Amino acid sequence: MKIDTNEMAKLEHATGTAPRVDLYSGIHKALRALMADILVAVGRMDPEDESEFDWVSSRVLQLADVCTSHLMHENEFVHGAMEACQPGSSGRIAHEHLEHGDAIARLKDAVQQMRASQGARRAGEALSLYRQLALFVAHNFEHMHTEETVHNQVLWAHYSDEELMALHARLVASLPPEENLFALRWMVPAMTPAERLQVLGDMQAHAPAPVFAAALDVVQPHLDLRGWGKLSRGLNLAPVAGLVEV
Ligand SMILES: [Fe+2]
After folding, report:
1. What does the domain layout of the chain look like in residue ranges?
2. For 55-82, how does the pLDDT look when each residue is reduced to its tens digit (9 = 90+)?
3. How many CA atoms lie within 13 A of 20 on its CB side?
4. 112 CA to centre of ligand 1 in angstroms
5. How far is it, in rounded angstroms, from Cα 210 to Cα 65?
6. pLDDT tens by residue, 126-171
7. What does residue 86 show for φ and ψ, rounded to 5 degrees?
8. CATH code for 8-174?
9. Of 16, 74, 75, 132, which one has the fewest beta carbons inside 10 Å?
C-alpha cells in the first residue's frame, strides 16, 4: 500500500508576498510533536513499572530511528537539490546532520545503559536520559528553524513550486508505506484544520480508497471532536452516530 502524500508539499508558507511550496513545514510539525511527546513521557516515566519502562524506552529508540531516517531523506533529496543550484548552500546543516548522527548514537547508548540498570540506579539513569533527550530536542528545534528559513530561501530562489512538488513526490515515493503512515499520524494532528484538510483532501481525491481509509484510521484517534468535526465536514464524510462535536 503506497500513500501519495504529495499534497503535504503544497502546504503554503506565507512569505509576505506569495505563498510557496514548503518542503519542511509539515514534517517538521510532526517531528516537533513527536519529540515533545516522547520527552514528556520520559520525564514522567515510572522506572519501577517494567511495562511502562519498556514502552517508553522503546519509544526513545524509535525516535532515534525516525530522526536518522529523516536526516538521510533531507541529505539525499533536499540538500542534493540545493547543492545542484547553489554549491555549498547546505554545508552548515549537512555538518549538523553529521553531529546529529553522533547525538543519536549517544541517545541509543543511554537507553541501553538505562535498560541495563536496576533499582535506585535506574531512576538516576532515567533522569540522565531525560536531560540528554531535552538537549537533543532543543538543538533539533533550532536546527529545523534554520532549515525552514535559510534553506527554504535557497530552494524558493532556484526552484518553481512545480519543481519542489515533484521533488517532494520523489521523496515520499521512496518511503515505505508504514513510514508514511507514521508521518501522517504525527503530522496531521499537529497541523491547523486548513492544513489537515489540504493533506487529506488530496489523498481523498487521488489515493486508492483503502489508503485514504488507513490514513483516517491513524489520524482520527489523535484529533479531538472539534478537530475531527472540522476535518470530516471538510471531507464530506458521513457523520458517525453517537459522536457529538463539542
Ligand atoms: Fe535536518
Report:
1. 8-174, 192-246
2. 999 999 999 999 999 999 999 999 999 9
3. 20
4. 25
5. 27
6. 999 999 999 999 999 999 999 999 999 999 999 999 999 999 989 9
7. -145, 85
8. 1.20.120.520
9. 16
| Residue 147 CA to ligand 1 centre (angstroms) | 7
* pLDDT above 80: residue 5: no
Q: Are the beta carbons of 47 and 53 closer than 8 angstroms?
A: yes
Q: Which three cell numbers stand for residue 178?
A: 508504514
State in Å, rounded, how far the first CA of the chain is from the last one: 34
Give the Cα separation of 62 and 59 in Å (integer).
5
Question: Residues whose CB is under 5 A from ligand 1 (ion)?
Answer: 74
CA of 123 to the centre of ligand 1 (A): 32
